[in-house]
Fold this sequence. Notes:
It holds the Pfam family adh_short_C2. By secondary structure, the chain is α/β, with parallel strands linked by helices.
Amino acid sequence: MSDKYQSFTQSAIGKVLVKNLGLPNPTKLERYTAGAPLVKGTVLVGGRGRLAESLSGLLGELDIASTSSATADAKFKGLVFDATGITTSSDLVELQEFFTPVLRSLETNPRVLVIGTPPEQLKGAERVAQRALEGFTRSLGKEIGKGGTVQLVYVAEGFEGSLLSTLGFFLSPKSAYVSGQVVRVGTKKADTVAEQVDPKRPLTGKVALVTGAARGIGEEIAKVLQRDGATVVGLDIPPAEDDLKKVTSDYITADITAEDAPAKIASYLKEKFGGVDIVVHNAGVTLDKKLANQKADRFGKVLDINITAPERITTELLKQKLVRDNGRIIGVSSIAGIAGNLGQTSYGASKAAVIGFVDSLAEDLRHGITVNAVAPGFIITQMTAAVPFATREVGQRLNAMSQGGLPVDVAETIAWYASPASTGVNGNVVRVCGQMMLGA
Ligand code: NAD
């Protein structure tokens, strides 16, 4: 399931046609390989604000080389701008003063991060100025090119030291297909749990349940969580057992919508592991039809699988206190749940409901347990291989990177949420969509 158009643009004739006809020219995206340094190059740090003390220390902990001075011939792999010191709209010119001189000195697949203060925690001119950062970063994401990404991280006061896993994710190739996102750290946390984390294998000793793990995105989530040290319990429907056991030897076969599925999952996790640390609700289906032609059973089935089952399973695991302290609950939404999509009223509703699930739970969870979701855009899997050719082509190109994402891009985002160092990351929905134009 490769991107044939992208391969064509790399050929001799393809290069000529792309140039002369002004066709999209997707840059090959670097992906993370296990054991490699997070950043192959230097990160330039700028701005003035609350992060002045902590930023270089955090980057050092991640073995990321950084500097605060840009010499004329220097090349940068990443830029981090501490915008927490911007308190009025006229201060925003500091963004231009920092970025313009260095944007032509970036290597391929560069990473840009702007760090601000959550506007909802501020008043007056400072609130106005901090809100502006969103428009700035989303626009820069659309013009940076070279397979680059740009994000805005709003960090609540007092949580400056909680950025370790977030910096590691957004500065590395792990976030290859995530761009134009706004993330909040420390805004919805009633308590925190400190844990020693090995940045190379952050999930050592953790148990993760992944539903829909037999293939596609779920299979890749299982692999990435295993790479990071977790023991993965895979779950899928009984006909998928042969594929499922190739992914992991710890597995459950069940239809998640079955009446007894939550109890079956809970008893497996309790008996075998005494609990669970990470729950990834990945299993999902589409049964597309325009609403005028829709049948109740198909509409209901999509809702049952994509949202009601994750709700019931989560409720059961929490009720039985099986989700351990500093646990992670992770949903898989979709861009269709944000922007809507033709023929997808049921799917769009179910995936918007995943966002509602995050919003409602994030306020209530305690003991360092967090809930977040990913919202993938066009990811190349068997699900999207079934999409008609023309729609698929448009779907793949309609984003700032002019290409579809890979299951690993979704999996890496989930691994960032799953890290024990991500306790401050709660209540977020991050799109893995190459900054798709839909619903942006
Ligand atoms: P996929 O169809 O390749 O895999 C889904 C897996 O879920 C399958 O192994 C399937 O057997 C399992 N599953 C389905 N119903 C189940 C049930 N009732 N009980 C247990 N297991 C069940 O799909 P994918 O592309 O890997 O998608 C994974 C998730 O990502 C889904 O939630 C999907 O909605 C979401 N998503 C995918 C894309 C994309 O572009 N592929 C985009 C946005 C969101």
